[in-house]
Amino acid sequence: MDASVLTISPGRPLRASITTFGALVWSGFRRYATYRQATIAGSFTNIVFGFLRCYVLLAVAAGAVGGRPGGYHPAQLATFVWVGQGLLSVVGIWGWTDLADRIRSGDVASDLLRPVPPVTAYLAADLGRAAHAMLTRFLPPTIVGAIFFTLAAPHRWQTIPLFAVSVFLAVVGSYGCRFLVNATAYWLQDARGPLVLWTLGSGVLAGLYFPLRLLPEWLAVTLWVATPFPGLLQTPLDVLVERDPPGMQLGLVLLQAGWGLALLTIAQTVQRRAERKLVVQGG
């Protein structure tokens, strides 16, 4: 049986690059499609925690003055929780240690021999993972939330397209952060410490446990401008529930795009420095 091998043609570099990137995305999708039992178990866990979080936030809304804590009415809070539970696996802020494991084992050396740079290759695979999660992990919590609670439906035509773009940028931003945390293994040899810190801090700072709008305004604005964390979950959820006027919605998505580009640029710079370090050490 003949085997087809992806090659980059000098005469058609753009087409070859797109084809190769698409193949890597598809390989990432197929990899996660094999874990059917884990997918079902993960969806069930997200639904259970969705009920807990939703009832807590609705209780907060019931006890708040005016019934709108942080500017959210109850239906917006319910939507924030259930869509957030679905996006948690799509954005994938936890659990990715592929790069750190390969650095520790030395297998990363083979990554450097491939025609696709590691930052690009891992990004493509992560987009495939996110696409699989969107189909299998996003819908169940959202459907369950819609059955048992009153969710807020978007009223502006631009909300759904902006939400889709925002989710894509959240995946890119999350990947950039996770790549940088994993890349600490180039210097530390073992990235478990930074990974633990990332796990503990990212959920809180991204708005997973509670909307960041419940914090003092100066602190919430500082987190949005000075860190990429709100763009991982808080921004797409605020866009979907229409927490802000249209101009602010667009501004938040543009801020996400800026952070995503910055994180990918930093990741590429760190990777180049790490490669020089490997060469100096004879790796």
UniProtKB/TrEMBL annotation:
Entry keyword annotation includes Transmembrane = yes
TM ranges: 41-65, 77-96, 138-154, 160-181, 193-212, 247-267
Q: Which InterPro entries match?
A: ABC-2_transporter-like (IPR010390)
Q: Write the record's keywords in alphabetical order, separated by commas.
A: Membrane, Transmembrane, Transmembrane helix
Coiled-coil spans are none
Short name of any one Pfam family annotated for the protein: ABC2_membrane_6
Keyword check for Metal-binding, yes or no. Answer: no
What is the superkingdom listed in this entry's lineage?
Bacteria
The name this protein goes by in its record: ABC transporter permease
